[in-house]
C-alpha cells in the first residue's frame, strides 16, 4: 500500500528497554552478592542462608529494597511492583521477613496473570479464528468479520464516533444503523494527494488543514483522511496535540470502514470491500491508543486483540507488535511459539527486525 511510505510510525516504542530500576545498595569494603528472583510482574532481592558466626546484615538490604523513583521510567515496566507507602518506610521489623515459601516462589499470585483477561473494549462474543489450516480466503474473511465486530460492538468506540448529522461534526451517536456516505471507495482523491505532498514537503500545517476538511463527517467523510487527521491530532503534526479528539476521528474511520466491509461480507465477498485498507489502518492505530493510553484508558488486552486482528489482515507493523505482546505477555499469557509465528510472518513480508534469529529455530516450526 503506497500510504505505508508516508505513514511513518513515529510512535514506535521501546517499552522493553531497561528491565530493572536501580536499587541503591550501600557501598562497603567487602563486595556484596545480591540474588534477585523475578517474574513478569515483580522482582525482589533474596537473602542468602545465615549461619552461626555470620555478620548480621540489616534486613532492608535484602528483602526490602529502596523503591525506585517514578522518574526513572515513564514507560510500562513489567518488573515494577506497586507498593503501599507503609512498605517503603525504614522500619526495622519489615513484614517481608515472614514471607511464606509460596510467596517467595510466586505461587500465590493467581490474579496477576489473569488481571487483563477481560476488557470492556473487546466484545464478549468476538469471533475466534482458530488455526492456520483451511482455505486462505475463508480464513481472511473470518478475520475481517472479526474486525468489523471488534469495531461495531465496542461500546467505547460507538460512544466516541463522530456523528455526520451533528452541526459541529462532533456529536455523539452510538447508533450502528445511521447512514454514512464515506468516500473510501474513491481512488487518488486530488485533495488527498495534495495534502500528502504538502506533508512530505514539510508544510504540516497546510497539509493538516486540508486533511481535516476531507475528514469532516458532514463533508467528504473520507475514512483514510480521518485516520490521517487522527494521527495528526495525536502527534501534533501541524496542529496542537489533542489525543481525545484524535480518538474520535480514528473511531469514525474504523466505524465507517467496518460498515462498508460488513455489507461486502454479507454480499458474499470473501475478500471484503473497498474499505479494507482503511479498516486495517484504523484498527492498528486504535491498538496503539489502547496500548499507550492515547485518548483512552490503557487497555493491554484490547491492544493485543486489535494488533492481532490487523496482523491477520496483512499489516506488517501489527505483526511485529502482536509478536511482542505474545513474547512479553502483554495483554495476556506469554506464548513464544505465537511470537515466533508473527515475527516470521512479518519478516517474510519484508518487515525484519534485528536480533530475531531465534524465531527460525526448529522448535518453533508449526
UniProtKB/TrEMBL annotation:
**Which stretches does UniProt call biased (Low complexity)?**
85-96, 177-188
Would you tell me the Gene Ontology cellular component terms? cell division site
Instruction: Specify where the region named Disordered lies, as residue ranges.
Output: 39-142, 160-190
- Point to the regions of Basic residues compositional bias: 71-83
Query: Transmembrane region positions?
Result: none
Question: Which BP terms in the Gene Ontology apply to this protein?
Answer: negative regulation of G2/M transition of mitotic cell cycle
Cite the record's Basic and acidic residues compositional bias ranges.
132-142
InterPro entries membership: Mitotic_Regulator, Sel1-like, TPR-like_helical_dom_sf
In terms of PANTHER family, this protein maps to: ACTIVATOR OF C KINASE PROTEIN 1-RELATED (PTHR43628), CHITIN SYNTHASE REGULATORY FACTOR 2-RELATED (PTHR43628:SF1)
The name under which this protein is listed is HCP-like protein
* Lineage per the UniProt record: Eukaryota, Fungi, Dikarya, Ascomycota, Pezizomycotina
Amino acid at each position: 500500500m503506497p500510504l505505508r511510505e508516508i505513514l511513518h510510525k513515529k510512535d514506535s516504542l521501546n517499552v522493553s528497554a531497561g528491565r530493572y530500576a536501580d536499587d541503591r545498595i550501600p557501598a562497603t569494603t567487602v563486595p556484596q552478592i545480591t540474588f534477585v528472583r523475578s517474574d513478569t510482574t515483580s522482582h525482589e532481592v533474596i537473602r542468602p542462608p545465615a549461619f552461626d558466626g555470620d555478620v548480621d546484615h540489616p534486613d532492608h538490604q535484602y528483602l526490602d529494597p529502596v523503591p525506585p523513583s517514578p522518574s526513572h521510567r515513564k514507560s510500562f515496566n513489567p518488573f515494577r511492583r506497586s507498593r503501599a507507602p507503609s512498605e517503603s518506610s525504614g522500619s526495622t521489623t519489615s513484614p517481608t521477613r515472614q514471607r511464606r515459601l509460596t510467596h517467595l516462589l510466586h505461587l500465590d499470585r493467581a490474579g496477576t496473570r489473569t488481571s487483563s483477561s477481560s476488557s470492556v473494549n473487546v466484545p464478549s462474543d468476538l469471533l475466534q479464528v482458530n488455526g492456520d489450516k483451511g482455505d486462505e480466503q475463508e480464513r481472511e474473511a473470518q478475520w475481517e468479520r472479526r474486525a468489523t465486530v471488534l469495531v461495531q460492538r465496542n461500546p467505547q468506540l460507538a460512544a466516541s464516533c463522530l456523528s455526520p448529522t451533528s452541526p459541529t461534526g462532533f456529536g455523539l451517536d452510538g447508533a450502528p444503523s445511521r447512514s454514512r456516505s464515506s468516500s473510501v471507495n474513491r481512488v487518488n482523491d486530488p485533495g488527498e494527494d495534495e495534502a500528502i505532498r504538502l506533508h512530505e514537503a514539510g508544510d504540516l500545517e497546510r497539509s493538516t488543514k486540508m486533511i481535516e476538511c476531507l475528514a469532516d463527517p458532514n463533508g467528504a467523510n473520507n475514512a483514510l483522511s480521518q485516520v490521517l487527521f487522527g494521527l495528526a491530532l495525536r502527534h501534533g503534526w501541524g496542529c496542537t496535540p489533542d489525543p481525545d479528539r484524535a480518538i474520535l476521528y480514528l473511531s469514525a474511520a474504523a466505524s465507517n470502514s467496518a460498515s462498508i466491509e460488513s455489507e461486502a461480507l454479507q454480499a458474499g465477498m470473501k475478500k471484503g470491500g473497498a474499505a479494507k485498507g482503511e479498516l486495517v489502518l484504523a484498527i492498528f492505530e486504535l491498538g496503539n491508543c489502547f496500548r499507550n493510553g492515547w485518548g483512552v484508558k490503557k487497555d493491554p488486552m484490547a491492544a493485543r486483540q486489535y494488533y492481532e486482528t490487523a496482523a491477520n489482515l496483512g499489516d506488517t507493523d501489527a505483526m511485529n507488535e502482536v509478536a511482542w505482546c505474545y513474547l512479553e505477555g502483554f495483554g495476556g499469557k506469554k506464548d513464544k511459539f505465537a511470537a515466533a509465528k508473527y515475527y516470521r510472518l512479518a519478516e517474510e513480508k519484508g518487515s525484519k527486525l534485528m536480533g530475531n534469529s531465534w524465531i527460525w529455530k526448529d522448535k518453533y516450526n508449526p
